[in-house]
From TrEMBL, chain A:
InterPro entries: THDP-binding, Transketo_C/PFOR_II, Transketolase-like_Pyr-bd, Transketolase_C. PANTHER family: PYRUVATE DEHYDROGENASE E1 COMPONENT BETA SUBUNIT, PYRUVATE DEHYDROGENASE E1 COMPONENT SUBUNIT BETA. This is Alpha-ketoacid dehydrogenase subunit beta. The keyword RNA-binding does not apply. Residues 4-179 form the Transketolase-like pyrimidine-binding domain. Keywords: Oxidoreductase, Thiamine pyrophosphate. One of its GO terms (molecular function) is oxidoreductase activity. The keyword Oxidoreductase applies. Pfam families: Transket_pyr (PF02779), Transketolase_C (PF02780). Its cofactor is thiamine diphosphate. It comes from the Bacteria.
From TrEMBL, chain B:
Pfam families: E1_dh. It comes from the Bacteria. Residues 43-332 form the Dehydrogenase E1 component domain. Its EC number is 1.2.4.1. This is Pyruvate dehydrogenase E1 component subunit alpha.
């Protein structure tokens, strides 16, 4: 075991897979010699050569096309979109091309591409760097979406993503890159895609969340505990597909739930989680399932992040509302 | 001081031609090395495709085919490029580029199933290196850069060839694809079939550039404009581009000047709304079949009898293929669910059960 930040765990996962499989390729803007704008690919080009880890021209759409083509000529591309706000440039490649390849060829072809991209607020980035756009991915049939919240989850899930034979979008929250260290095994291991993790057990209310909101939820759970409310925190880890069994089992146990996301209320996946709970566990509910989200505006100007982003206080408030319904 | 940069660039892209409209060889030095049998095979394929186009239009009108983008007029451009390929080369077609796929090994009935909207049309047989026709104009161009780089990295002496139209050359993905392939010296050939119209919009409205071939300059790659109604010139240009690519010299942009005699697609487009009879007549005179037929007849390599044989064969094959397409099983939702992932997520597993129950009723 080693103590690693999430970014180190991510680098370690790529190193592991570059070593394991000569068809794994890592590419994107500044991922080569520079080691990535966040150092996620630090040292990889030096270790594996320019043939395996390389820079691309500055064009997200072209990177997507490159990944699809490389993926169909026998490689396992791990492409990077520098910030997920730039997704719009490559939306066609991801959603209309890779995500549909297996289907439109009637199962003959596939697109084994991993799309890594940072996102997330709290670090005062300029425009269109921090937006939470995972909801757009959730709505697109044919792709899986992973959002890890710990170094341990990040490594195991990224290795699984790279080994998956269908396209996987792997979203890395910028605020979590270096904010804390965690235990990460040095050897290779995988975490099953589509499996949530109960980060804290509780019996009164289920807090279903992902990304940076996992940590805000854990903090909220501690405060709630002081007031005698026992909260169970479920880190979805994969947001598409959802781990429906873990969600429903928790709600059936606690009888109350809130869904917490950093994205705006009209975005993210909160509404889908609520709908699934209503469909499957309404008879267990003591109260409606409420959501903690950002307001339905464009992502805030940097200096307004503090008042805009949801935080542990919002979670405590919503949890109490559900508890006292 | 008078600057004349634009003219100077334009002058680099003179139309490459081997056969005149009368089937005379006007550029003996560029004549590709093709055996008599290969020349006849090229003619056979062009005649076959012309008949197939006529039949496809009429089958579409009878409701026995669905989506269809006519190809008459573009036979030299389509088949001349494909004829220069190796079996292991990859084709990334646009939606009009079905003939190339069929002559690269896609069974005709699958082309018909694609037209109707049936998954079997996309199930490409093993060893036939083609993608399904691309509907998003330009997407095939960036993907071809990826295929071209992949082939190069695998050390293959093969290329990826992709096609778009004159309108497609205005897309961002068009420029990105050329530029990526150039930056990586990828094994790629980009063909722009300039048939002068993107649905109703004439090529002059796409760009102020006098040629599309010169757009290669922006990517720093080779570009060539070819008489797209001259199958020998198209073949020779593609063969050279292929040579250069497999020798590690990078990609080429080929612009073929061509024309579609029919409508844009069979979905209600009426070319008389935007094309004059004069323009149609002008391009009818350039018909690739007429020109090549004259050339072959001059060499005593083609006769009416041979031509009729091809026509009969084409009609026979089409009849068989349509029959085979008719025999394809009806698509079920459970089929479609099954093609989504290697392993189904929970939602699709549930929906699979739901539709299985529905389908067994």
């Amino acid at each position: 075991m080693a103590q690693m930040t999430m970014i180190q765990a991510i680098t370690d996962a790529m190193r592991t897979e570059l070593k394991n499989n000569e068809n794994v390729l890592v590419f994107g803007e500044d991922v080569g010699q520079n080691g990535g704008v966040f150092r996620a690919t630090e040292g990889l080009q030096k270790e594996f050569g320019e043939d395996r880890v390389f820079d691309t021209p500055l064009a997200e759409s072209g990177i997507g096309g490159l990944a699809l083509g490389l993926g169909m000529t026998g490689f396992r591309p791990v492409m990077e979109i520098q910030f997920f706000g730039f997704l719009f440039e490559v939306m066609d490649s991801v959603v209309a091309q890779m995500a549909r390849m297996r289907y439109r060829s009637g199962g003959v072809y596939n697109s084994p591409v991993t799309i890594r991209s940072p996102f997330g607020g709290g670090v005062k980035t300029p425009e269109l760097h921090a937006d939470s756009l995972e909801g757009l991915m959730y709505q697109s049939p044919g792709i899986k979406v992973i959002i890890p919240s710990t170094p341990y989850d990040a490594k195991g899930l990224l290795i699984s993503a790279i080994r998956d034979n269908d396209p996987v979008v792997f979203l890395e929250h910028m605020k979590l890159y270096r904010s804390f260290r965690g235990e990460v095994p040095e050897e290779e291991y995988t975490i099953e895609i589509g499996k949530a993790d109960v980060k804290r057990e509780g019996k009164d209310v289920s807090i279903i969340t992902y990304g940076a909101m996992v940590h805000a939820s854990l903090k909220a759970a501690e405060e709630l505990e002081k007031e005698g409310i026992s909260a169970e925190v479920i880190d979805l880890r994969t947001i598409s597909p959802l781990d429906i069994d873990t969600i429903i089992a928790s709600v059936e146990k606690t009888g109350r739930a809130i869904v917490v996301q950093e994205a705006q209320k009209q975005a993210g996946i909160g509404a889908f989680v609520v709908a699934e709970i209503n469909d499957r566990a309404i008879l267990s509910l003591e109260a409606p399932v409420l959501r903690v989200t950002a307001p339905d505006t464009v992502f805030p100007f940097a200096s307004a992040e503090d008042v805009w982003l949801p935080d542990h206080k919002d979670i405590v408030e919503k949890a109490k509302k559900v508890y006292n319904f | 001081m008078k600057t004349n940069t634009i003219d100077a660039v334009q002058d680099q892209f003179e139309t490459f031609q081997i056969l005149s409209e009368d089937g005379e060889v006007v550029n003996e030095a560029a004549m590709p090395e093709l055996s008599d049998e290969q020349l006849q095979e090229l003619m056979r394929r062009m005649v076959y495709t012309r008949i197939w186009d006529q039949r496809a239009i009429s089958l579409n009108r009878q409701g026995r085919l669905g989506f269809y983008a006519p190809v008459a007029g573009q036979e030299a451009s389509m088949l001349g490029t494909q004829f220069a390929l190796d079996k292991e080369d990859w084709i990334l077609p646009g939606y009009r580029d079905i003939p190339q796929l069929v002559f690269h090994g896609l069974p005709l009935y699958k082309a018909f199933l694609y037209s109707r909207g049936h998954f079997e049309g996309g199930q490409i047989p093993e060893g036939v290196n083609v993608l399904m026709p691309q509907i998003i104009i330009g997407a095939q161009i960036i993907q071809a850069a990826g295929f071209g780089l992949g082939l190069k990295k695998k050390g293959k002496k093969n290329v990826a060839i992709t096609y778009t139209g004159d309108g497609g050359a205005s897309q961002g993905d068009f420029y990105e694809g050329l530029n990526f392939a150039g930056a990586y010296k990828a094994n790629a050939i980009f063909v722009v079939q300039n048939n002068r119209f993107a649905i109703s919009v004439p090529v002059e409205k796409q760009s102020a550039a006098k040629t599309i071939a010169q757009k290669a300059v922006a990517a720093g790659i080779e570009g060539i404009q070819v008489d797209g109604m001259d199958v020998l010139a198209v073949y020779a240009a593609t063969q050279q581009a292929r040579e250069r690519a497999v020798n590690g010299e990078g990609p080429t942009l080929i612009e073929t000047l061509t024309y579609r005699y029919g409508p844009h697609t069979m979905a209600g487009d009426d070319p008389t709304r935007y094309r004059t009879k004069e323009l149609d007549d002008e391009w009818t005179k350039k018909d690739p079949l007429v020109r090549f037929r004259k050339f072959l007849e001059g060499k005593k390599l083609w006769s009416e009898e041979q031509e009729n044989k091809v026509v009969d064969q084409a009609k026979e094959d089409i009849k068989e293929a349509i029959k085979k397409a008719d025999g394809a099983a009806k698509q079920k939702v459970t089929d479609l669910i099954g093609f989504m992932f290697e392993e189904l997520p929970y939602n699709l597993k549930e929906q699979m059960e739901e539709y299985k129950a529905k389908e067994s009723k």
